[in-house]
Structures are given as structure tokens and as C-alpha cells.
Amino acid sequence: MKYSNLDKLFNPRTIALVGASANPVKWGFIVFFNILKGEFTGPVYPVNPKIESLLGIPCYPSIETVPDSIDLAVITTPAPTVSSLIDECGRKGVSFVVVITSDFSETGAKGADMEQEIVEKARSYGMRLVGPNTMGIFSAKTHLHALMPPVMPLHGSLSMFSQSGNVGVQMLYWGINKGVGYEKFVSSGNEGDLRCEDYLGYFAEDEATTVILAYLEGIDPDSELYRTARWACRKKPVLIFKGGRTKTGGKAAASHSGAMAVSSKVLKAAFHQAGIIEIDDSQGLVDCAKAFSAYPIPRGSRIAILTRGGGWGVITADACEEHGLIVPPLSREILEKLNTILPPYWSHANPVDMAAVITSKPYLECLEILAQWDEVDAVIALGGSIQGALDFKNDVKGTEELKESLAFAREIAKDYAEKNDIVLDLARTLVDKTGKPIIMVTLGDYEDHKSDLTNHRVVSYPTPERAVRALARMVDYRRFLNSPDEDIKQ
Questions:
Q1: Which architecture, in CATH terms, is 7-292?
Q2: Residue 168 and which of 150, 182, 235, 430 are 20 to 30 A apart at CA?
Q3: Cα separation of 54 and 69, whole Å?
Q4: Mean pLDDT of the chain
Q5: Nearest to residue 347, comparing CAs of 321, 364, 366?
Q6: Is residue 286 predicted with pLDDT exceeding 50?
Q7: What CATH number was assigned to the domain covering residues 296-479?
Q8: Residue 322: CB partners within 8 Å, gap ≥ 6?
Q9: Residue (of 257, 266, 382, 414) closest to 316 by Cα position
Q10: If phi over 0 gives left and psi between -120 and 50 gives alpha, with beta otherwise, what is residue 93?
């Protein structure tokens, strides 16, 4: 399958910022500042005939006067000026242009005409164009932060294209908070030239990218997205969150990014057939990104559930069945092993209810037994971290025996908190050993989901429903990989 070579876009040797500004509230300053702050690996040339320097770097009156070849030009000037600047970039031999500027096809017929003009000009020079109406691009390899907002994403293996700059950038922000790192990101904007299928094809062949994310609002009738996805999804997971699913949302998308509405039912069917994993909401996209980026794809849909309390086990089992996952009964061998660890009144079933045993050793032993059980493909482990539930900070009045009991309870809580790292490290060891995802669900006031991922490479969620949803999407992808691989005509 052919795809656009976007190496000079995401890994340029040189950049020119056309429309550089000394005004700190204008995009010509903010984008330039973000590029410098991000420590881009190559030279950056500000272009503005009215100023001599910007942030200590010499300014040039036009891109044609820059004494260097330019791989990437970023344009921030008003829409009516862009056409002539495209000519200048073309004469300079620029490879790629990112048009931050809005007021094009998303505003109506006049803007659409201007957009068509700049696209046709760019193509006549052999240039490729991102946008217009884009928030910019990011690339971890070259520390390229040509973005409007001052976000500095964590580096990782996710790559994303988004037809909404705001939604896409929010995913970068959430990634920082949740320990999810990105390799590449592009706000595709109106997609006057480069379109979603171009980014999908490039990311599919990019060795540094392991999972592809996308936010889409509309697809042109002649789009090659479906055909591209059919082979891209065989290479790596593609997770898409689709906006504009309703009539009202579709109208909003048209005025936002110039997106063309497509029947949600038709698109959903096409996504499923191509192997795209469609995510229902923005939080779900980040949740699934965590699991797909950190864990192997499960071999099947059979799930073992470990819980310290019966109610949470019931909730998790319900969620599994509702999402098409199987919670198989425990084998006699597993029952016998667990009987040697747990009190006589434990559940004797899957979910494995530890009957409120809170010490770490039985939990670790149960987790290892379930992970190594041949008849399951993944484990959901609830209650691995319960710091918030073990709050014995306040002193009490009463007998010496009561005070001694409180001191003992504090020691248990301290011991449990200290062994939390041991639980997480064992979980990761078991993932690597068995090839099965082990997803943790926390109890109490727990704020370390980010460190679980960044320090231990373990995925954790605050609720079982979110854990099951992410795991179910991984199982969906496994079903696609196991389906017949039909040849795609070139």
C-alpha cells in the first residue's frame, strides 16, 4: 500500500516561522516560543519584514532571504496573505507547510475558494500542506513542538491525528497527567491537502509508533481512509473517537473544521470491517490508549477477576458479560491452590473474592495463580492499592488495649503501603512472563495511576467499568487479527 512520506514534516532539519511576532499574545510569537522552549534539534528562522530579531534570533524579511534550505514552514498570518506566502515558500523549495491560520473552508464558500487556491498552488510547487485551520504538529524524535498551546507531551509510542486541534491537544495534556506518551501528533484541521488517510498510512509504517489514535469529525466521499485502514490495522491498533455522530453534532463539525457528515451507521460498519477500534468517548480513548500501549493483545476473551470484596467482583463480572467477555469457572486445580491461601469462607468461584483478607502476601499469591492459569487470557485485579481505605492517622481515647490495637492497625497500613510497589512489580513480571494483560483497579483515594504506568509499566484505573471497557476493546482487536486477512488490491 502506498502512503505519503511525511519524514520532513515530522522530522525536519530546518523550520521557518512565517508571521513571527513580538506581540506575546499573537500566534506568531506563541508558536515560535513553543518551538524554542521544546528545544527543537535544528535551526529555526523567524520571518517578518517589520522586526529585526525575535527572542534573540535574527528575523528575515521573507522566507526567500533565509540563508538555508527549509524543510518546514509554519504560517500564522491572516488568511488573505497566505496565498502569496505559499508562492514564496514554493520558490524557496520548502517541502511542507503548516498553515495555522483559520478563516478558510470552515467559514463558507469564500473561505473554501481561498483554501482551494492555496492547496492548488502548494501542489504546483510539489509542496504538501497541513491544514489550514490547524493547531500544529509535534514530534518526539526532533523535539518539535510547533503547537499553539504550550503543551509539552510525554514522549512515548502513540501517534495521533485529530481534525480538532483542541480535542487533540487535550489528549496530549491528559497523557501528561496519566503517564501516556506520544511519538507524533498532528492537528489536521480542514485537511485541504494532506488528509487523515495520509497520516494513518505514514504512522502505520513508522517504526517508532506502536498505537495510532485519531479524532475524526467527517470524511470526504473520495477518502481513502477505509482502504488505508484495512492494511494499517493489520500492522498495529488504530483507535478512533468519532465526533459529529448526530445531526446537531454534524452541523457543528461542518462549521468547526469544514468536515463533511457521513452516516454514523455506515461509518461504524466500515470501521468494524477495516479493523478500526471505535471508542465512544474522549476519556475512553485515553483509557484504551494506556492499555494498548503498555500491554500485549490478549489471546482471547476469558477473564479472571481478583477482588478483596464481593460487591466489586459482582460489578466487574456484570461489566465483563455486558462487553462480551467471558468469566470462566475455576478449575479444580485452581480451587485447590487457592484453598491453601484463603480462609474457608472465600467465594470458591471466579470472581475470586478474598473475603476481606487485606494483607499483601495472599493477594500476591492469588494474583500469580490466576495469571498463570491456562484457561484465562487476562486478569482484572481489584484492590491492589487501598491506601485511602487504611486511614489510622487520628489518635483515640480509651483503654491501653485499644491504643495498642490502633498502633497495630497503623503498622498493617504502613506495611501495605510499602508493599504496593511489590504488587505492581509482580503484576508487570507476570505480564511479561505470561503475555497476558493484568489490569489493576484501585480502591480508596488513590492518585498514583500515572506512576503505576511510568514507574512500573502497569495499567490501573479507578473503576472496574473503565478497566473492562479498555480490555474489551483489546479483545475486539484480537478478534480482528484472528479474522481472515483478505488481500487488498493495490
A1: 3-Layer(aba) Sandwich (3.40)
A2: 235
A3: 20
A4: 91
A5: 366
A6: yes
A7: 3.40.50.261
A8: none
A9: 382
A10: left
